[in-house]
Amino acid sequence: MAISSNTERGAWNSRLGFVLAAAGSAVGLGNIWKFPFEVEAGGGAAFVLLYLFFCFVLCFPVMVTEIAIGRKTKKNAIGAFDALGFPKWNFIGKIGILAGIVILSFYNVVAGWAFGYFFEMVTANFEIGAQFGDYTKDVFKIGLYSIFFMVATSFIVSKGVSSGIERAAKILMPTLIIMIVGILIYALTLPNAFTGVKFYLVPEFSELNLRTIGGALRQAFFSLSLGMGALITYGSYLSRKENIVTSAAMITIFDVGIAFIAGLMLFPIVAYSTGGDMANIEGGAGLIFVALPGVFETLGTTLGAVMGGAFFLLLSFAALTSTVSLLEVPVAYIVDEHKKTRKNAVIISAVIIFVLGLPSLVANGYSAFFSNFITYVGANTSTDFMTFFGHLADVLLLLGGTLIVTFAAYIWKKENLHDEIATGYEGYHDSINKKLIDFAISYLCPVLLGILFVLVVLSNFFGISIIN
Ligand code: PHE
User: Fold this and answer.
1) Residue 373 Cα, ligand 1 centroid: separation in angstroms?
2) Nearest residue to 146 via CA among 367, 361, 364, 382
3) Is 25's C-beta closer than 6 angstroms to any atom of ligand 1?
4) Rounded average pLDDT per 10-residue block, the chain, 468 residues
5) Is 225 in the pocket of ligand 1 (CB under 6 A)?
6) Closest Cα to residue 249, out of 454, 46, 431?
7) The CATH fold of domain 7-364
8) What percent of the chain has pLDDT over 90?
């Protein structure tokens, strides 16, 4: 097996650095923007339990597999399959890189909104929520935030694995935890906080149907950054001394924990602002960008600016460690396979992705060029584009995930995977973990992920709505 001697390739300085960087990839807009509303709409605590089951039973084995493939080969998402001796299977990595590019192209736009909102909040412009539609049409302003975000991401990635990605994660992730816990404590002391918590978590089993169950698995997969080789790439910088299973467990717990806390923090604030009336709460993009500024306003100008600013900065930081991992996937590929310098690889990837993200950026705006294109694909707003790209991303991730586990179990062979996992984990071969991972990657993951992939394709692209 070829071990890269490429000097542009980096390595993590410590296990903590790896765990924080991977957790940074996982914790993102998905956790804070999406998860709380999925829980609320999907049946509260019943949904949370299901989500935990999916994360630990279905997603965790996929994460271990991705990290093991990366660490074994010390290669990017495509090169890893070549290095294992199966170049025909490197199309899995190609799907992954495509997924990463698609996700980053719209993710960066939303991240730009979040960052822009930080400035609106600290200048106490709480009206911005009501003007959200116009705000997203201000192509120039949104474009600048979005460019800024891409530049910040590129800067971190261009500095390399340990002095860029790892260092940023070591600063941003602890800051993120302090901010989210701070806002949480404050939120829980507000009047009507408990009404908000109840609204979030009261189990409603009637809401659990095929759609919400499928939604939970899609969300878990996206949130853990699986199926596109992000963790193959991050795993490729990991030392053989480290225990993959405990690292993956830490990453999963981190991700689930932050998502859960995000809901515990949001709903009490909302309940406070409505005086405990939760009848007309609107979820998703609506709540965060439209309703939340008004909620912060009810806290008074100064406190509102501080809490609102902290919240949107938190959202921006969470997004930044995710955009970094999304950019690193194509960058690692270009560095490894096309022998470009890291800086050039970053520039090439960032420019392509930014251009691809233009429809998400300007679809609400006035660009004549894009309006033709927009009419052509039938999308009227940037949110339509995001929904479209979001569906496409889900489909690609689920396909990638199904193929990665199937490849590991049946092509590369389980013994090889287990041997790699056992490196750095004494006693793995006799452990229950091995049995669980074995069962999951052989049967559970390929079958369930495969079924969900088919259902999502049918419902999103053929209008056959079994689960939507
Ligand atoms: N996990 C990130 C989130 O929850 C998104 C992401 C997906 C990042 C795939 C990298 C790879 O927001």
Assistant:
1) 27
2) 361
3) yes
4) 56 97 96 87 87 95 98 98 98 95 88 94 94 84 92 97 97 96 93 92 85 88 96 97 98 97 91 82 71 86 94 96 97 95 96 84 53 49 68 91 97 98 97 97 96 86 64
5) yes
6) 431
7) Amino acid/polyamine transporter I (1.20.1740)
8) 67
The verdict on the CB of residue 104 being under 6 Å from ligand 1 is no
Nearest to 66 by CA among 308, 420, 348: 420
Q: Is 322 in the pocket of ligand 1 (CB under 6 A)?
A: yes
Assigned token pair, 287: 């709540």
pLDDT of amino acid 383? 61
Q: Which of 38, 223, 288, 399 to mutate to test the pocket of ligand 1 (most atoms within 8 A of CB)?
A: 223
CA of 153 to the centre of ligand 1 (A): 14
Q: What is the pLDDT of residue 379?
A: 52
Question: Where along the chain do its domains lie?
Answer: 7-364
DSSP state of 238: S
Beta carbons of 272 and 196 less than 8 angstroms apart: yes
Residue whose pair of structure tokens reads 């467990």 in the numeric block: 249
pLDDT tens, residue by residue, 123-167: 999 999 888 888 888 888 888 999 999 999 999 999 999 999 999
Ligand 1 contact, 326 CB (< 6 A): yes
User: Ligand 1 in contact with 251 (CB < 6 A)?
Assistant: no
Q: Is 427 exposed, middle or buried (0-12, 13-18, 19+ CB in 10 A)?
A: exposed
Taking the centre of ligand 1 as the mean of its atom positions, its distance from the CA of residue 17, in whole angstroms, is 18
What secondary structure letter does DSSP report for 465?
A: -
No. of helices (H) and no. of strands (E), the chain? 24, 0
Residue 165's nearest CA partner among 7, 322, 367 is 322
Nearest residue (by CA) to ligand 1, atom 7, is 225
DSSP letters of 83-109? HTT-GGGGHHHHHHHHHHHHHHHHHHH
Residue closest to 314 by CA, chosen among 187, 168, 185, 174:
174
Measure the CA–CA gap between 328 and 219, rounded to whole angstroms.
22
Q: What is the pLDDT of residue 387?
A: 73
Q: How far is the CA of 275 from the centre of ligand 1 (A)?
A: 34
Distance, CA 426 to ligand 1 centroid (Å)? 31
From 172, 321, 325, 329, mutation site for ligand 1 pocket: most ligand atoms within 8 A of C-beta: 325
What confidence score (pLDDT) does residue 357 get?
80
Give the CB-side neighbour count of residue 285, counting CA atoms within 13 A.
Answer: 13
For residues 340 and 334, is the Cβ–Cβ distance under 8 A?
Answer: yes
Beta-carbon contacts of residue 103 (< 8 Å; ≥ 6 apart): 228, 326, 389, 393
